């Protein structure tokens, strides 16, 4: 591996490893802890830049604060604060998961927003970009409500939940009506 910076391909290869695989790579001599520290520092720098972009006022107004931002808002720890190999491996796994997520980039957030709006529009919800932050708030409420017991609460994207085989559009309409504080039929959803 290089002495200074890793190539994008090498970083991507490291990101493909999970915690256990990273440990095995170190044990087998495929990678050294020193190389992993350098790789982690490089990945952390990229992640911190992305997090700073996500937290700008303009982006918060467009997309809210994504869970990725909330979970990693204090950023990732510096290598000097990591004690031992296991902490390093855990941090590499965490920063890798963040970097691989569509929601860690503005273009990825735009794609998620468009997919979410398109999915809800196809299901009969009258929503557009101006509704997106309210949809995010609704999803947080939905996940905490009784309706969510029927769905995978860890699913990160509205479209993924809605398109799952368990999804029932009527549940969504009732939940949206309840969330909106309207009686069924008067909330801003199309009626069939």
Quick structural gist:
The protein is an all-alpha fold. The protein is 60% helix and 0% strand.
> Helix proportion of residues, in percent?
55-70%
Question: Helices and strands, in N-to-C order?
Answer: HHHHHHHHHH
* CA-based shape: elongated
Distance between the termini: 61 Å
Biggest β-sheet strands, sense, barrel: none
Mean pLDDT over the residues:
76
Number of domains: 2
Proportion of β residues? Answer: under 5%
Q: Taking Cα atoms only, what radius of gyration do you get, to the nearest Å?
A: 20 Å
Alpha-beta content class: mainly alpha
**Tally of alpha and pi helices:** 10
Number of strand segments: 0
Question: Which residues sit in consecutive blocks of at least 5 with pLDDT less than 50?
Answer: 152-157, 182-192
Q: What does the model show?
A:
With 192 residues, the protein is mainly alpha-helical. It has 10 helices and no strands. The longest helix is centred in the first third of the chain and has 22 residues, at 33-54. The radius of gyration is 20 Å and the shape is elongated. Residues 152-157 and 182-192 have low confidence and may be disordered.
